[in-house]
UniProtKB/TrEMBL annotation, chain A:
Gene3D superfamilies: P-loop containing nucleotide triphosphate hydrolases. This is ABC transporter ATP-binding protein. GO terms for cellular component: membrane protein complex; plasma membrane. The keyword Nucleotide-binding applies. The lineage of its organism: Bacteria, Bacillati, Actinomycetota, Actinomycetes, Micrococcales.
UniProtKB/TrEMBL annotation, chain B:
It is a multi-pass membrane protein. PANTHER family: ABC TRANSPORTER PERMEASE YTRF, MEMBRANE COMPONENT OF TRANSPORTER-RELATED. This is ABC transporter permease. One of its GO terms (molecular function) is transmembrane transporter activity. Belongs to the ABC-4 integral membrane protein family. It is found in: Cell membrane. It comes from the Bacteria. The chain crosses the membrane at residues 22-46, 266-291, 311-337, 357-385. Residues 23-234 form the MacB-like periplasmic core domain. One of its GO terms (cellular component) is plasma membrane.
Length: 264, 395
């Protein structure tokens, strides 16, 4: 197991006994998450793996304040999120979280720099008024300084995800939530994108929570979890053997054994 | 502050990106605003044209007409004139004029031709909006002139001075018992076809050289509208007191009925309003369809920290900003159209006081457009807020 290097500080995000139910049209209740306990420290990289439909995205949405637990407590820097109104939650979501999606979710019809500047429209003060400059700087940091005015459809998949990462980072989030960030990319491009995410998170001190099918990607994290039947279980992905076992356990695939070494 | 600016910037960006769709939706709104604003302005100009036409006949609003008669005998015209002058001075009335319509004998060859004469004071031109199209109108100093002067129409010049232009100061001999030479100093426009020769002469000159023509006079007195009924009673009382044996009658102007009544105006505005409503419905339709296409984008924006109210306000603002711009275009179009109306051809007469483009019409047009935008944006905005964020992102 890799040694967590940044987990010693006070938790940034804490989930205690979090459950999430949804009511189905036939009146029955579907349990998506059951008794989730998780804490993420500032600067830590955590990965969650699991089959499709096991509630990974629901967990990520709860972490990112896009969804609420049915039961249980969510503390953000010690503040119980359940007590916040929807307005305060939206504000904290904008201030503290950056999202990276599998399908990039870039805004159509807007250039790369306009996409990166979009979150700053909801910021206040200097960040709002200097949004164009900040977006330009962020795109330069992810190596797209030459593609500022390019429309998303003219960018390659890897470039689009880099724009999405720049957009997630531009407000200086405390937590980056990545939902299958390499899911739509080939192996090499996916690795490069993860390198970028890891570097950016390390530089800014942001925590990174990655949800992935790809065990090689998960293995780059400080800690890994498996989500199965709504229950979160810690796993270890620091060696080829267990990786394959774990892959069998979660129904995931291991694209290339050497790729595991990158983050392990 | 940054919240409001952010919402407007967001709305503007959205319009910029979807400009074709927005343009299509807004054509109807802009055209309706042009119609509302333009018609309001045109109605205002038409009203002014009719008012000016009415003023030429009976004086400006509010012009009192004073008549006098003496039951015991002939009324002394000079005493009547002096009494009216005194009253005008007493009540600080700036413009008043005598008006006496007579037949003026003008020597034409061996015989006299009778032309229609109006005996007036210099203020007559102000009260009745009479403007000369050649030479000049009377001034107070003309009362001291050594010979009578006339302001005439073109038929007068054609028939009685052999067509000599007014600049040549043509002279005519006024007939009657004692002939006198009169000089033409100005001409007034011909108001209708087949108009015969006519002339204006100052009361003081007529009293000196043609005293027989100074009788049966009435007075036009231009008074503030809010004081018309008070002054009507006061002038009648004072005149009767000043001229023993005289009966004075002071009349308020009769309603010409020329002005567009408010019902007509409301019908016109109603039709335009309906057109605007239809434009708004088109906009609503397109906005609703678009917002369905934009569910994912709304979800992404929620992940950026957009609050529900911000999403609501943002979608609403798109519609409002769009219709505001359409309203602006509509008003500009209306101004361009109204300013280029060939007034003389449309209204039959040139306007002396062209009314400025009615500011209220422009404001009403803008307000209607923005209001329609807000209404059309309301439904999509509610829809956008009720979108589930998680579903929206995965949409």
């Amino acid at each position: 197991m890799s040694t967590p290097t940044v987990t010693d500080g006070p938790p940034l995000v804490e989930l205690h006994g979090v459950t999430r139910h949804v009511q189905l049209p036939n009146g029955s209740t579907l349990e998506i998450l059951r008794g989730i306990d998780l804490s993420v420290a500032p600067g830590e990289h955590v990965a969650v793996v699991g089959r499709s439909g096991t509630g990974k995205s629901t967990l990520l949405n709860i972490l990112g304040l896009l969804d609420s637990p049915t039961h249980g407590d969510y503390l953000l820097e010690g503040t119980p999120i359940g007590r916040l109104g929807s307005r305060a939650r939206a504000r904290r979501r904008g201030d503290d979280f950056g999202f990276v999606f599998q399908q990039f979710n870039l805004l159509a019809g807007r250039t790369a720099v306009e996409n990166v500047a979009a979150p700053l429209l909801y910021a206040r003060g200097r960040k709002f008024w200097q949004r164009k400059r900040l977006a330009t700087q962020m795109l330069e940091r992810v190596g797209l300084g030459e593609r500022l005015d390019t429309m998303p459809e003219k960018l390659s998949g890897g470039e689009q995800q880099r724009v999405a990462i720049a957009r997630a980072l531009v407000r200086g989030p405390r937590v980056i939530l990545a939902d299958e960030p390499t899911g739509a990319l080939d192996v090499d491009t996916g690795r490069a994108v993860m390198d970028l995410l890891d570097t950016a998170a390390a530089e800014t001190g942001a925590a990174l929570v990655t949800i992935t099918h790809d065990l090689a990607i998960a293995a780059r994290a400080d800690r890994q979890f498996r989500l199965a039947d709504g229950v979160l279980v810690p796993i270890h992905l620091d060696a080829p053997g267990p990786v394959i076992e774990a892959a069998a356990a979660v129904g995931a695939t291991v694209p290339a054994a050497p790729a595991l070494g990158a983050g392990a | 502050m940054s919240g409001l600016v952010g919402a407007v910037v967001e709305a503007w960006d959205e319009l910029r990106i979807h400009k074709v769709r927005v343009l299509l939706a807004l054509v109807g709104v802009a055209v309706a605003v042009t119609a509302i604003t333009g018609i309001t302005a045109a109605v205002s100009m038409l009203g002014q044209a009719m008012q000016e036409s009415s003023d030429r006949d009976q004086g400006r609003p509010t012009t009192l007409t004073v008549y006098g008669w003496n039951s015991t005998g002939e009324l002394d015209p000079l005493a009547f004139d002096q009494a009216v002058d005194e009253l005008a001075e007493r009540y600080k009335i700036s413009y008043h004029s005598v008006q006496a319509n007579q037949q003026l004998p003008v020597r034409s060859g061996a015989s006299d031709t009778y032309v229609q004469l109006t005996v007036v004071d210099p203020s007559y031109s102000v009260i009745t909006r009479l403007v000369t199209d050649g030479g000049r109108w009377f001034t107070d100093r003309d009362a001291e002139a050594l010979g009578p002067t006339l302001v005439v129409n073109q038929p007068f010049l054609d028939q009685l001075t052999d067509g000599r232009p007014v600049d040549a100061h043509p002279q005519v001999t006024l007939g009657g018992d004692t002939a006198v030479q009169a000089t033409v100093i100005g001409t007034v426009p011909v108001r209708w076809e087949q108009e015969g020769p006519m002339a204006y002469m100052l009361f003081d000159q007529a009293a000196r050289w043609l005293p027989d023509l100074v009788r049966d006079q009435q007075y036009k007195i231009w008074v503030p509208t809010e004081l018309d009924e008070d002054l009507q009673a006061v002038l009648r009382r004072d005149l009767t007191a000043m001229l023993p044996g005289m009966h004075a009658e002071v009349q308020l102007p009769w309603d010409s009925g020329f002005g567009l009544d408010s019902a007509t105006r409301w019908v016109v505005l109603g039709v335009s309003g309906f057109a605007l409503l239809l434009g708004g419905l088109g906009l609503l339709n397109i906005a609703l369809v678009t917002v369905r296409y934009r569910i994912r984008e709304i979800g992404i924006r929620r992940s950026f920290g957009a609050t529900g109210s911000r999403v609501f306000f943002g979608v609403l603002m798109e519609s409002v900003v769009a219709t505001f711009v359409a309203g602006l275009v509509g008003v500009v179009l209306a101004v361009a159209i109204v300013k280029n109306i060939p007034v003389e051809r449309v209204f039959g007469t040139a306007l002396q006081d062209t009314p400025p483009f009615p500011f209220t019409a422009a404001l009403v047009g803008m307000a209607c457009a923005t209001g329609v935008g807000a209404l059309a944006g309301l439904v999509p905005a509610i829809y956008a807020v009720r979108v589930k964020v998680i579903d929206a992102i995965r949409y």
